[in-house]
Design a protein that fits this description.
about 10% strand, about 80 residues, 4 helices, two-stranded antiparallel ribbon, mainly alpha
Length: about 80
């Protein structure tokens, strides 16, 4: 139990140390990767545990890299 609490506190502390400058850089890197590499650039920032909720009015929930890639494939194929 103590180990679990210590690990949780360490994780929270590490996340809290990410500055707004670091978040802005990450956001810019994500935008640049998506603009230059399209779906492949987008997918570089998706994990196996990512969950995407469908657009407003859709009740679809998509999870996992391959399902998310399939979900966005048509969108990214448009010029």
């Amino acid at each position: 139990m103590k180990v679990t609490i210590a690990a949780l506190l360490f994780t929270i502390s590490a996340a809290a140390q990410m500055t707004s400058a670091a978040l802005l850089k990450l956001d810019r890197d994500f935008a640049q990767a998506t603009a230059s590499e399209h779906l492949d650039g987008w997918m570089r920032y998706i994990t196996d545990y990512t969950v995407i909720f469908g657009t407003q009015g859709e009740s679809q929930i998509v999870g996992g890299k391959e399902e998310i890639r399939a979900y966005y494939r048509d969108l990214f194929s448009r010029p």
